[in-house]
């Protein structure tokens, strides 16, 4: 695309349309800047997705640990109720 714009720039310049030639050159610069900005934005989005996935994984680990603790407490509760009853009888 740069070759086409360069040849168009040269043709406009030789035809005496200096402002149009400058507009074509500015258009090429804008396209290059937009492409560069999009590349940076793609990397930023990728980093945000990676952080989000890590956060979800950590939350999942916490939920799994809490479920394990809950299961252990549920298993202990019946024996604790019997112990309370025997202590109340004394």
Low-confidence stretches: none
Which structural class do the helices and strands define? mainly alpha
Strand portion: under 5%
Quaternary arrangement of the chains shown? single chain
Give the mean pLDDT: 80
Strands, count: 0
Largest sheet: none
Helix share of residues?
A: over 70%
Distance between the termini: 94 Å
| Helical stretch tally | 2
H-E string: HH
Inertia-based shape? rod-shaped
What gyration radius follows from the Cα positions, in whole Å? 35 Å
Mind explaining what this structure looks like?
With 90 residues, this protein is mainly α. Helices cover 96% and strands 0% of the residues. It has 2 helices and no strands. Helix 1 (2-15) runs antiparallel to helix 2. It is rod-shaped, with a radius of gyration of 35 Å.
Map the helices and strands:
Layout: H1 2-15, H2 18-89
Helix pairs in contact: 1-2
A few lines on this structure:
The chain is mainly α and 90 residues long. It is built from 2 helices and no strands. Helix 1 runs antiparallel to helix 2.
Keywords:
about 90 residues
């Amino acid at each position: 695309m740069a070759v086409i714009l360069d040849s168009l720039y040269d043709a406009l310049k030789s035809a005496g349309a200096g402002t149009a030639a400058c507009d074509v050159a500015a258009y090429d610069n804008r396209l290059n800047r937009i492409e560069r900005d999009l590349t940076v934005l793609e990397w930023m989005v990728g980093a945000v997705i990676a952080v989000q996935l890590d956060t979800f994984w950590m939350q999942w680990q916490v939920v799994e640990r809490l479920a394990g603790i809950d299961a252990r407490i549920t298993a202990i509760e019946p024996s604790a109720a019997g112990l309370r009853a025997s202590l109340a009888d004394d």
